[in-house]
UniProtKB/TrEMBL annotation:
<protein>
    <submittedName>
        <fullName>3-oxoacyl-[acyl-carrier-protein] reductase FabG1</fullName>
    </submittedName>
</protein>
<keyword id="KW-0560">Oxidoreductase</keyword>
<comment type="similarity">
    <text>Belongs to the short-chain dehydrogenases/reductases (SDR) family.</text>
</comment>
<dbReference type="InterPro" id="IPR036291">
    <property type="entry name" value="NAD(P)-bd_dom_sf"/>
</dbReference>
<dbReference type="Pfam" id="PF13561">
    <property type="entry name" value="adh_short_C2"/>
</dbReference>
<dbReference type="InterPro" id="IPR002347">
    <property type="entry name" value="SDR_fam"/>
</dbReference>
<dbReference type="GO" id="GO:0016616">
    <property type="term" value="F:oxidoreductase activity, acting on the CH-OH group of donors, NAD or NADP as acceptor"/>
</dbReference>
Length: 256
């Protein structure tokens, strides 16, 4: 594959949350010279963030209101990206919703929603990004977001439905890695443990943070900037031989 061009775009979903991982990833990639398309279902939040990031980084940044679970919304988002930014060489799928419902609380509607946003949204974004990477002929990087919950079934906040959706993402990642690898496109998954964001029912207070840290060998929860550092490497040109991997970023929780 030819080297990555200086002008290249990373698409980051789930960038609307003020304390979320998506914003940290977008900021880190902008510092590394990427143009950014930041997507979120919250239009006001993502537009405001895009304006702020563009001004701070002096990189091209496009904010797009999009529902990743809606094929028409995804298509419309990539139409805007194609028209306004350099070629897409990286796709980072961070959009997701929690699901604290137990097995017997899961209605068909709740089940479909958690799968649609977490798993189907990842699939649709992968398809759209990969088509453009193939057409561009330079390969690319896709990073999906699973969770330690896919392995332990829950216990910190989200439960069975979320665990199933995040396990599906691991299969999507490995299938994509096998199919897209010959085209120079790598697919990898990050597997976060407890991270200091709001997805586990809101901001973590000191007492809850301490409780979550008990089963983590490093005795603390993770920070969004640490996840952003891992993503930054996985989308880099140097990471071209990492493919189909699931990378725990959990302080060692998966060993417990």
């Amino acid at each position: 594959m030819p080297p990555f061009p200086d002008q290249r775009t990373a698409v980051v979903t789930g960038a609307g949350g003020e304390r979320g991982i998506g914003r940290h990833v977008a900021r880190r990639l902008a510092r590394e010279g990427w143009a950014l398309a930041v997507l979120d279902v919250n239009a006001d939040a993502v537009m405001s963030f895009a304006e702020e990031l563009g001004a701070d980084s002096q990189q091209p940044v496009l904010g797009i209101a999009a529902d990743v679970a809606d094929p028409d919304s995804v298509d419309a988002a990539f139409t805007q990206i194609d028209a306004g930014l350099p070629p897409v060489l990286a796709q980072v799928n961070l959009a997701g919703i929690a699901s604290p419902h137990t097995l017997f609380e899961l209605t068909p509607e709740l089940w479909r929603r958690v799968l649609d946003v977490n798993a189907t949204g990842t699939l649709l974004m992968m398809q759209a990004a990969a088509r453009r990477m193939i057409d561009g002929g330079r390969g690319g990087r896709i990073v999906n977001t699973s969770s330690i919950t896919a392995y332990d079934g829950g216990g910190t906040f989200s439960k069975t439905g979320y665990a199933a959706a995040k396990a599906a993402i691991l299969g999507l990642t490995r299938g994509g890695a096998r199919e897209l690898g010959p085209r120079g496109i790598t697919c990898n998954a990050i597997v976060p443990g407890p991270i200091d964001t709001d997805i586990m029912g809101g901001p973590l207070g000191d007492e809850r943070r301490a409780a979550l840290s008990v089963d983590i060998p490093v005795q603390r929860v993770g920070q969004p900037a640490e996840v952003a550092g891992l993503v930054n490497y996985l989308v880099s040109e140097e990471a071209g031989f990492l493919n189909g991997g699931s990378y725990f970023i959990d302080g060692g929780k998966h060993m417990v």
